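Sanity check

After download, print the first record. It should look like this:
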Amino acid sequence: MKYVVVLGDGMADQPIKELGDKTPLEYAKTPTMDELSKISEIGMAKTIPEGMKPGSDTANLAVMGYDPKQYYTGRSPLEALSIGVDMKDTDVAIRCNIVTVSDEEETYEDKTMIDHSSSEISTEDAKILLDAVRTEMENDIYQFYLGTSYRHCLIWSEGDVVELTPPHDILERKIGEYLPQDETLRNMQKRSYEILSKHPLNLERKAKGLNPANSLWFWGAGTRPALDSFEGKFGKTGVMISAVDLLKGIAVGAGLTNVIVEGANGGLHTNYEGKAQAAVDALTKKGYDFAYIHVEAPDEMGHQGSVERKVTAIEYLDQRVIRLVKEQLDASGEAYRMLILPDHPTPICVRTHTSDPIPYLLHDSTKKETHTWDYNEADAGKSGNMFEKGYELMTYLLS
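Expected C-alpha cells:
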C-alpha cells in the first residue's frame, strides 16, 4: 500500500456572497475531487489545538501526525532546519519577512501593512535586499539567513522567545501597536525601512508596478525543535514535496526526504505537474511508502483577498495535481490511500488563518464506497465523521 497526502494550504473558507453563498472549494470546478468524493470518506478534523494560534506550522505538524502541544517550539526554528541553520540550544530563530509598508507617513509607527509578501518577491530580489540589510545590521548576536521569496530567518544568539505578530494578520492596519516590544528588534525593523525604502531595486520595482519590499518584519520566534522520526513513529519512509521552507523544515526534523521540484515557488503559478510527478516517481520508482504534496497557492490567494484567484488555485490543485496522481497511481496497479485536505482555513473575509475545523477526503483504491456527497466544508460537516484531535488523522490514513 502507498500513501499520499495532497494538502491545499488554506483551501478551506466561508460562504462568499459573490460565489452564490458558496465557499471557493464548493464553487470551484473540481471534477477529480467530485469523482473521488462519491467513492470515498469525507469528514472534518480540528488541526489547531485549543489555545494555540492557527498557523501553518501547528496545522501541518498536526496533519503530519505530530501533536502540536507536544512538538511545537515555534515556526521559524522549523524553517531554520530547511535553510540549513545549525541552531544551538541557546539560539532563538525568528521569521524575517520582507514586507511592504506604506511610505507616505513620516513616522514608522504610523505606516500601514500593505503586503506581507512584497508582491511575492523573487528569491533573487530578496537576496539583494537582505544582503543590504546584512551589511548594515548583522553582528555576532543577530545573524540573517536567506530563505525563499519573502520568507527569511533571523537567528538571535542567547535570545528570548518574545511575542511577535504575523504580518498577514494585520493587513491594511497601522503597524505601530504591533511592533516588537523588544527595543532592539523594534529598532532593527525601523532601520531596515531606512535601508530598503531607498534601495535602487525598490525604485525599479515601483516603476514596474510591483510593491516595494521596504521593511523587514519579525515574527514566529522559537527554540530548536525536536521531532521524532516519521519512519520510527509510523514505520513508513516518505518524501516531502513543497516550495515552502516551513514544510521542508518539518521534513528535515522528521527525517523525510525533501524532493526539490524545479519551478515550484509557492505562488499561484507554481509547477503543479512537477510536484505530482515527483510524488508518483517517489512512490512507484524509488520505493518510498509515503508522499506529502504541499501546495501553498490557496493560502496566498486567501491572504491577498482574491476570490477569483483562490478559486483558480483550487481548480489547479484538482486538475494539475490530484488528477495526475490518481491517474498514474491507478495505471501503476499500486494499491494506495490518498488524503486530500487543507491545513487550516484562510477565509477571504479576514485574509488570515482561523482555527475552524477543516474538511478532509480519504480515498482508498481498494475500498470504494458509495455516496452522494461532494467534497466541501458543508457536506464534510454533515458526514458525521470528526477528528477532534487532528494529529490522529495520519495514524488513520496509515492504518
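If your output differs, re-run the checksum step. Summary of this record's structure: Residues 307-332 form the longest helix (26 residues).
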